[in-house]
């Protein structure tokens, strides 16, 4: 049985933890790849790269370096496409609606600390009626250093007047786990997301879940 924590606040990473945004990333990237005569990719190919950010995705899928003459053009085209496709097919991960309902029913606050910029994150979050009670959204726009630095998590706790020890941070990337540990929150790795496996989890020694529905077992 999973260990339970006394919890007043649950903070989520966004992409790959709270919301499955991969389908909309895929549409956007494939539109740009096709425009430039490149072969389209599948969902399984893009998922491991989403948490790395747009620059690394362009570098990997166009097979170019950051100094390539067309790098910024490809990246800007991708971001423009993504703005058009933000909320077409993204969805809460299976079981996450039950987690949110549990938090609401037990008056436990929840929010998001993400490395996704506010102009992209806010419309996605606002498109989900299930997230109407979200208390805070912290993006790179709000901090001086993004994850793995703990500044965003610390800021969220401070704004909501909740101690780190009373907070759980959930993420699907090693940088999420490092940020939560540095912020001195409880940390849970989400193996159902994009970037974690048990080998990575073992390097930090934190609890993990294989599905979103298991998160409830950590909350009392």
Summarize the structure.
The chain is 40% helix and 13% strand.
Question: What does the model show?
Answer:
40% of the residues lie in helices and 13% in strands. By secondary structure, the protein is of the alpha/beta class. It has 2 domains: 9-21 and 90-218, 3-Layer(aba) Sandwich (Rossmann fold), CATH 3.40.50.1000; 22-84, DNA polymerase, domain 1 (Orthogonal Bundle). Helix 1 crosses helix 4 and helix 3 (54-62) packs across helix 4. The radius of gyration is 17 Å and the shape is globular. The two termini are 14 Å apart.
Mean pLDDT: 96
The CATH architecture of the largest domain: 3-Layer(aba) Sandwich
- Give the class from helix and strand content and strand pairing: alpha/beta
Taking the sheet with the most strands, its summary is: 6 strands, parallel
Counted beta strands: 8
The CATH superfamily of the largest domain bears the name: HAD superfamily/HAD-like
Work out the radius of gyration: 17 Å
Task: Give the neighbour order of strands across the main sheet.
Answer: 5-4-1-6-7-8
Helical fraction equals: 25-40%
Shape: globular
The run of helices and strands is EEHHHHEHEHEHEHEHE
Distance between the termini: 14 Å
Q: Which percent band covers the strand fraction?
A: 5-15%
Spans of 5+ residues with little confidence (pLDDT < 50)? Answer: none
Number of domains: 2
User: What is the CATH first-level class name of the largest domain?
Assistant: Alpha Beta
Question: Helical element count?
Answer: 9
Can you tell me the CATH topology of the largest domain?
Rossmann fold
GO biological process, one term: DNA repair
GO molecular function: metal ion binding; phosphoglycolate phosphatase activity
GO cellular component, one term: cytosol
Protein name: HAD family hydrolase
């Amino acid at each position: 049985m999973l260990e339970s924590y006394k919890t007043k606040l649950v903070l989520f990473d966004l992409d790959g933890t709270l919301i499955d945004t991969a389908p909309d990333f895929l549409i956007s990237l494939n539109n740009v790849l096709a425009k430039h005569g490149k072969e389209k990719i599948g969902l399984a190919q893009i998922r491991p790269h989403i948490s790395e950010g747009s620059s690394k995705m362009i570098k990997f899928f166009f097979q170019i370096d950051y100094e390539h003459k067309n790098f910024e053009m490809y990246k800007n085209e991708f971001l423009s496409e993504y703005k058009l496709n933000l909320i077409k097919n993204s969805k809460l991960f299976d079981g996450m609606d039950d987690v949110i309902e549990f938090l609401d029913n037990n008056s436990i606050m929840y929010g998001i600390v993400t490395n996704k910029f506010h102009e992209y994150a806010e419309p996605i979050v606002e498109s989900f009626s299930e997230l109407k009670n979200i208390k805070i959204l912290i993006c790179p726009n709000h901090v001086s250093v993004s994850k793995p630095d703990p500044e965003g998590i610390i800021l969220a706790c401070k704004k909501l007047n909740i101690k780190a020890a009373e907070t759980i941070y959930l993420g699907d990337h090693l940088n999420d786990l490092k940020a939560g540990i540095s912020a001195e929150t409880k940390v849970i790795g989400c193996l159902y997301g994009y970037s974690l496996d048990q080998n990575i989890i073992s390097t930090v020694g934190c609890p993990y879940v294989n599905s979103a529905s298991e998160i409830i077992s950590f909350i009392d």
